[in-house]
Every structure is written in structure tokens, then in C-alpha cells.
Design goal:
With 345 residues, the protein is α/β, with parallel strands linked by helices. Helix content is 50%, strand content 11%. The relative contact order is 0.10.
């Protein structure tokens, strides 16, 4: 018997934290035969999940599998886990990882499914986890792709990618998550997968704003297309493989996040269109909107890597400098003429 198995041989996994995406992925693992501990700071949330098999705040209509149990005790959550999945918001990832570090087994597979950057340091989530957990960054796996929690929890067909520099780690994650409703591909381009997953949230904010202002399908198609160009330019400058942006983590996730009312980034952008202040929108959302935090990070990264990101820059001005959306669009449309196909870096 290994340290990651109980006396009955049941595989164990821990998922940190119990938001909508964490809960959906915990359900995938439980459906695949794992005994899953879903960690949350909220005692009432843990009690509700265990008593009712529901996570009312995030996925109110979905019944959770019997193999999933919530806990507020980090040591209990991680005890004997062969896989630890981090789904904390980007702003809380370092804190959650630091709290988890003492209880992780040396052979525990570390996976994260958070789409964002650490705002203060501009680091990707795999870097944050590697630092806090004392693991090689090459061993961290990132899970990303076009995947709304509301559909995953109902076992609607979904396809994602898991990326790690260490092929065996990516394949272990693939085996853990893949089933008939949740197809998983592997990729070695961690940088590309993380950059794509983060920056597409900015473009989704813009898409919601565009839809809220009734700019039409032409404008939205242009926004997605030129947004993908921005993702590619920044990613390439940071060392990514440009082909990643044509895949699930790139165009796939961009399309689903920019075109669905399930997307909290799209919803936040749509709310901003009526002139509501950002603080009011975030309060009304009641959940983390990663695109807002990521817009700050992308603005700084574009300067650090000397990459032109006009859409992200204009959204930064709308969110944090009081610029009107109409003026931002006018400035984007009035930019100097250029070629469509430009070098990525």
C-alpha cells in the first residue's frame, strides 16, 4: 500500500477551494472514483455540502457525488491525497498554497486550474505554487480550456488541456480527470496555457461591454480576433509556443468565455455598459471576476515585455481611469493603420 491509498485502496484527492470551478472539478474526480476532500474556509458552506450534497452559492441546482466531502481543516483535506488541485482565486493562491504546504506528501501531484496572474509580482500561478510549496516549477500541472462549471457539473461534453513540462505529470493528471464527459488532452507549454487562460478573461470583459452597448456581431468578432492576437503576442514574448493559442486553452477558451452568459467576466462587462461603477458591479456579482485583476497585470506585463496590447490597455483605462467605453472604442478604431499578420514578438 502506498502513502496515497487508504487501507481499502481508494484513491484520494484534495480540492482547494469550494467555488464553482473547484466544486465542478471535485465532482469530476469523485465521479472517476476518487475520495475527494473539498476544502473551504467557510464552516457553513462545508456543513451545507455535507448535509445536502449542494453548494448553493455557486452551483445551486447541482447534486454533488457521494464520494465528495467538504472540510475546513486543511490537514484533513490533504491527508493521503495523491492529487492536490488548487482552484483558489489568483489573489489568494499564495496564501492557500502556504497553508497547504506542510500537509502535502512528497509524491502528491500538484495541479492548478486558476486563470490569472498574481497582481503584485505579475507571476503565473505555477510560479506562485512552486515557490510556496517548494516544488520544481516544471512539476506543476495546469488545467485549462473551454469549460463552464455549470456544464461540467451536469456532465455535459467538455474538453480541456492539462499542461506540464514533465510529461509523466501531465499524463497522471489526464488519467485522473478524463472520462466520457470530460475529455483531456496533454500539452507541454505551461506558459502558453497559463497566459491564454488569464488574458482571455480581459477580452471577455470587453465582449460583455460590447454586447451591453449593442455594438453588434461585427464588433464582437473583431474583438475576439484581435484579442487573440494580443494573447499570442504576450505569450510569445514570455516564451510560449504560438500553436498553443490555436488550441483549447487559446481560441477554445476565448470563444466560450466571450460568448456565454455563464461567464462572470462577460456578465461584469455587460453590467459596466450601463455606466455602473466597477465597485458596484463587483459587489453585485458577489464572486471573483478574474478579468478585472488580470487587466492590471496585463497592463504592466505589456510594458515589461514591450508588447503592444491596445484592447487590454483601453480596458485598463475604462476600469481604472474613468474612460468611457465609447471613447475607448473610438481610440481603438482610430489607431494608425497596420498589417493584420504581425510578428508575435
Amino acid at each position: 500500500m502506498t502513502i496515497n491509498e487508504s487501507s481499502s485502496g481508494v484513491r484520494k484527492a484534495a480540492v482547494l477551494v469550494a467555488g464553482s470551478w473547484g466544486t465542478a472539478l471535485a465532482s469530476v474526480l469523485a465521479s472517476n472514483g476518487y475520495k475527494v476532500s473539498l476544502w473551504t474556509r467557510n464552516e457553513e458552506q462545508a456543513k451545507e455540502i455535507n448535509a445536502t450534497r449542494r453548494n448553493a452559492k455557486y452551483l445551486s441546482d447541482a447534486e454533488l457525488p457521494a464520494g465528495l466531502k467538504a472540510t475546513t481543516d486543511m490537514e484533513t483535506a490533504l491527508a493521503g491525497a495523491e492529487l492536490a488541485l488548487f482552484v483558489a482565486p489568483s489573489g489568494a493562491m499564495r496564501q492557500v498554497a502556504g497553508q497547504a504546504s506542510p500537509y502535502l506528501g512528497k509524491d502528491t501531484l500538484i495541479v492548478h486550474a486558476t486563470k490569472g496572474f498574481e497582481t503584485d509580482t505579475l507571476k503565473r500561478m505555477s510560479s506562485v505554487l512552486a515557490e510556496e510549496l517548494g516544488r520544481p516549477q516544471s512539476s506543476i500541472v495546469v488545467l485549462s480550456g473551454p469549460s463552464h462549471a455549470e456544464e461540467v457539473i451536469r456532465k455535459q461534453p467538455t474538453t480541456v488541456v492539462v499542461a506540464s513540462e514533465e510529461t509523466d505529470k501531465a499524463e497522471r493528471a489526464q488519467d485522473a480527470f478524463m472520462n466520457n464527459a470530460f475529455r483531456v488532452y496533454t500539452n507541454s507549454d505551461v506558459v502558453g496555457v497559463e497566459v491564454a487562460g488569464a488574458i482571455k478573461n480581459i477580452i471577455a470583459l470587453g465582449a460583455g461591454l460590447s454586447d451591453g452597448l449593442r455594438f453588434g456581431d461585427n464588433a464582437k468578432a473583431a474583438l475576439l480576433t484581435r484579442g487573440l492576437a494580443e494573447i499570442g503576442r504576450l505569450g510569445a514574448a514570455m516564451g510560449a509556443n504560438p500553436l498553443t493559442f490555436a488550441g483549447l486553452a487559446g481560441v477554445g477558451d476565448l470563444v466560450v468565455t466571450c460568448t456565454s452568459t455563464h461567464s462572470r467576466n462577460w456578465r461584469a462587462g455587460s453590467m459596466l455598459a450601463d455606466g455602473s461603477p466597477l465597485e458596484d458591479v463587483l459587489q453585485r456579482m458577489g464572486m471573483v471576476v478574474e478579468g478585472v485583476r488580470t487587466t492590471r497585470a496585463a497592463y504592466e506585463l505589456s510594458k515589461q515585455y514591450h508588447v503592444e496590447m491596445p484592447i487590454s490597455t483601453q480596458l485598463y483605462a475604462v476600469l481604472f481611469q474613468g474612460k468611457s467605453p465609447e471613447d475607448a472604442v473610438g481610440e481603438l478604431m482610430g489607431r494608425l493603420k497596420t498589417h493584420e499578420i504581425e510578428p508575435l514578438a
